[in-house]
Q: What sequence folds into this?
């Protein structure tokens, strides 16, 4: 029987800034979506009204946020506001965690998985949280570990970080399919639904899993098997409203892993399998289907016979022959609704 998912682990309320002090707020904005700039304009109104000093930086394709975040910290920011989605936060997370800098997320990205998981469900609610904190009202915070991923590509190993979700195979193909849509149609569930529909019939991967912990007794990944995807998650709903991971928790010290071992490559049989898996997940029984293999741990190495796409927090990393995942030992301090 599945246990009820626990609430995010909350830290004591942050001490609100004093309006008499020279509060400095750094803003990192991803201008990809028009709603980012609308939220930015509203945030600036709040800051100007309360006479709070701020400095802004925007991300670009070649400068996705690490350098800008470091400069905001060097400037003396006491709070960083991130206007963007999971990918924007992923890039700047290691720098912010190392600096132990409080972070406020204003979710203006495509899926906003982490923000939704923490109860920040709209830009309006995030701006209300900003008003409360900057207006000297105490707000809660959550410690969110920043996890590590070593991606072994054709050009060599590459160290990346992620917060909510990592995967190799079919789930990364679903994200790749979403990017083929016109930009206006990529937002939210619609874009992911389209990408998923393109990935449902993706070829299976010959994969080997090396886990220092005891894996699922139903699934021996050490000898190699054919899978549609292997994922590591810290959120129950990585895309859309359907719960896929029953025990995933963003503040936990371990991942919930999932290997999807589909039984057939035939279109009709594959569609029937997905329909049953979807039904089980919608009824909060994701472990009920024999193709869904779950276990928990802090590390996992995934090796595939042929290069396969990898995604981290919804960002396509490229085709990899191996993906090594480790639960984070540093954490973001993210402001959350009370």
A:
């Amino acid at each position: 029987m599945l246990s009820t998912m626990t609430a995010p682990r909350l830290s004591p309320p942050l001490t609100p800034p004093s309006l008499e002090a020279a509060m400095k707020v750094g803003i990192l904005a991803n201008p990809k979506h028009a709603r980012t700039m609308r939220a930015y304009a509203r945030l600036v109104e709040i800051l100007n009204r309360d006479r709070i000093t701020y400095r802004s930086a925007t991300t670009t394709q070649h400068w996705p946020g690490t350098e800008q975040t470091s400069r905001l910290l060097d400037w003396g920011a006491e709070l960083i506001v991130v206007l963007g989605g999971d990918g924007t936060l992923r890039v700047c997370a290691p720098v912010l965690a190392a600096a132990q800098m409080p972070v406020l997320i204003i979710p203006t990205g495509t899926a906003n998985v982490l923000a939704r998981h923490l109860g920040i469900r709209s830009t309006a609610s995030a701006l209300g949280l900003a008003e409360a904190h900057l207006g000297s009202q105490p707000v809660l915070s959550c410690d969110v570990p920043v996890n590590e991923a070593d991606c072994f590509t054709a050009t060599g190993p590459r160290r990346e970080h992620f917060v909510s979700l990592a995967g190799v195979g079919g789930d990364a193909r679903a994200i790749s399919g979403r990017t083929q849509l016109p930009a206006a149609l990529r937002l939210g569930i619609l874009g992911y639904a389209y990408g998923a529909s393109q990935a449902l019939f993706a070829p299976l991967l010959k994969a080997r899993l090396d886990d220092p912990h005891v894996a699922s007794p139903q699934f021996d990944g050490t000898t190699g098997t054919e899978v549609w995807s292997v994922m590591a998650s810290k959120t129950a709903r990585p895309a859309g409203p359907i719960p896929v991971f029953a025990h995933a928790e963003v503040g936990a010290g371990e991942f919930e892993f999932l290997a999807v071992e589909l039984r057939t490559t035939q279109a009709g049989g594959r569609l029937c399998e997905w329909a049953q898996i979807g039904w089980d997940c919608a009824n909060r029984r994701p472990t009920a289907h024999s193709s869904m293999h779950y276990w928990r741990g802090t590390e996992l190495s995934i090796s595939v016979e042929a290069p396969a796409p990898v995604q981290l927090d919804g960002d396509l990393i490229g085709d990899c022959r191996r993906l090594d995942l480790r639960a984070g030992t540093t954490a973001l301090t993210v402001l959350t609704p009370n």
